[in-house]
Specification:
There is one protein chain. The protein has 481 residues and is an all-alpha fold. It has 2 domains: 2-406, Sodium/glucose cotransporter (Up-down Bundle); 421-481, no CATH class. It has helices at 2-23, 30-35, 42-53, 56-68, 75-98, 104-111, 114-146, 153-199, 207-216, 228-242, 249-256, 261-278, 280-292, 294-303, 308-316, 319-353, 364-391, 396-403, 405-410, 412-420, 426-446, 454-471. The longest helix has 47 residues, at 153-199.
């Protein structure tokens, strides 16, 4: 049975690679590779936003956190993640789309200067290590479960990273767009059908009994206790992803690939709302698994809570449901991994490497080749980081949470102030970045468990730095872009 299931999974991976290779036929220049020619319609943009964010942490990490803690433990994701997408769509998408940028790093150069561009581009690219690594770590987990241990999770990480690299390398944003349409369909239809199967099990008896059981177990406790320390920690969890995810190339890239600014605004917003609503499905399935087989669930909770749902599917659902579930899970992971692998690679190529290249010799074809090389190199870095995180026993949800600390502490304030505060200038941006980075790093080393989380302290310092620096007489004021 396992070999049959593994065969279906391999066939699905081959199909994804085929779609990616086909997408390469639509790539004629770097603009096609990076933004799909800014031609994507509403449905595709909504699908890309939803499928990119509905990743391994949504199916495996968030439900595991819900079981280990409660609903309040998921404040960063899906609550903070959904907040990010809605705010980006309603507040940031329109002005950024009108600027006709290639990357978010271009904004920092146009609004401020080259040093700000370089610093922010490096921070944005670095933040993706955790997010992409979480996806390939989940791929390794899937291969490990499906092979019943014949493939170790480390080996699975290498295999999964290779598959994602192949179909992202050739098709770029077109590959992401075309595979996402297929993947979103598999995700939505597959998980909803499996939910009906689970609801019909006698141990479950529908949706209401699962909700009632979880409520009785205290799993719906959400708000923090009435103390400043708890409230600040709660807000920091919300804003680390809620604000820290906004200055990210993948969010910008999806909006920027839209055919017009209306699609950019509402495609991102609707994708965020869809993500928040559908994130409840894996939580429901995972908690229902503890009701069907509490012995297995208890054992896995002590080992790795992320194994509860996939192990339940393998041991309690029919073969067709297993194929659908792991097909949906692979769709979830690969749609996120491909988009988040492309985004930092484009940022590195456009904003960190291109300024040092001779523009007279830099043809569009050569720059496209350079970008693809960076995609491959970044994939290797992600694989190594994922293997290291596996040894360090870092959870998928935690890996994603950690990804946005640096952008919250350094990148959000210059982006917001640069768009909406005419007085913001080069000195203000530089002071904001330096102060936010220093405070965050010092706090991480000196008091990582302090009542004021390090990244939130860095965020506050970044705000102070922007105001102080922008009012210094040495700062060169720049008109709002």
């Amino acid at each position: 049975m396992t070999s049959t299931l593994l065969g279906f999974v391999i066939a699905y991976l081959v199909l994804s690679i085929g779609i990616g290779v086909y997408a390469a036929t639509r790539v004629h220049n770097a603009r096609d590779y990076i933004t799909a020619g800014r031609s994507l319609p509403m449905f595709v943009v909504v699908a890309m936003v939803f499928a990119t964010w509905f990743g391994a942490e949504t199916v495996l990490g968030i439900p595991a956190t819900f079981l280990d803690e409660n609903l309040g433990g998921t404040i960063s994701d899906p609550f903070g993640a959904s907040l990010c997408l809605v705010i980006f769509g309603l507040v940031f998408a329109r002005p950024l789309y009108r600027m006709g940028l290639t990357t978010l790093g271009d904004f920092y150069r146009r609004r401020f200067n080259r040093p700000v561009e370089a610093a922010m581009s490096f921070a944005i690219a670095l933040s993706y290590l955790g997010w992409v690594s979480a996806q390939v770590t989940a791929l390794g987990l899937v291969f490990n479960v499906l092979s019943e241990g014949m493939i170790t999770q480390g080996q699975g990480i290498v295999i999964g990273a290779g598959v994602v690299l192949i179909y992202t390398l050739f098709g770029g944003m077109w590959s992401v767009a075309l595979t996402t349409v297929v993947q979103m369909t598999v995700i939505v239809v597959g998980l909803l059908w499996i939910s009906t199967l689970v609801a019909d099990m006698p141990e479950v008896g529908g949706i209401a009994p699962v909700i009632a059981d979880a409520q009785a177990a205290g799993k719906f406790e959400f708000w923090p206790e009435a103390s400043w320390a708890a409230i600040i920690t709660f807000l920091a969890g919300l804003l680390t992803m809620g604000f820290g995810s906004i200055p990210q190339q993948d969010v910008f890239q999806r909006a920027n690939s839209s055919k017009d600014e209306r699609v950019a605004v509402w495609g991102t917003t609707l994708g965020g709302i869809a993500y928040f609503l559908f994130a409840a499905v894996p939580i429901y399935l995972t908690y229902a698994a503890t009701m069907v087989d509490p012995v297995q669930a208890t054992t896995l909770l002590e080992e790795n809570a992320e194994l509860v749902l996939p192990s339940f599917v393998v041991s309690h659902l029919p073969m067709v449901a297993q194929v659908v579930f792991f097909g949906a899970l692979l769709s979830v992971i690969m749609s996120t991994a491909s988009g988040t692998l492309l985004a930092p690679s484009v940022t590195i190529s456009e904003n960190l490497l291109k300024p040092f290249l001779d523009e007279r010799q830099l043809t569009d074809e050569r720059f496209l080749w350079i970008t693809r090389v960076v995609v491959a190199i970044f994939a290797v870095g992600v694989t190594l980081y994922a293997l290291w995180s596996l040894e360090a026993a870092t959870g998928i949800h935690q890996m994603v949470e950690n990804a946005y600390k640096i952008t919250l502490a350094t990148a959000f304030v210059p982006l917001f102030a640069g768009l909406f505060w005419s007085r913001a200038n080069n000195t203000g941006a530089g002071t904001s970045i330096i102060l936010g980075l220093i405070v965050w790093l010092v706090m991480e080393f000196v008091a990582p468990e302090a009542s004021l989380p390090p990244q939130f302290a860095g965020f506050i310092a970044s705000i102070v730095g922007m105001f102080v620096g922008s009012y210094l007489p040495t700062g060169r004021q720049v008109a709002t872009a």
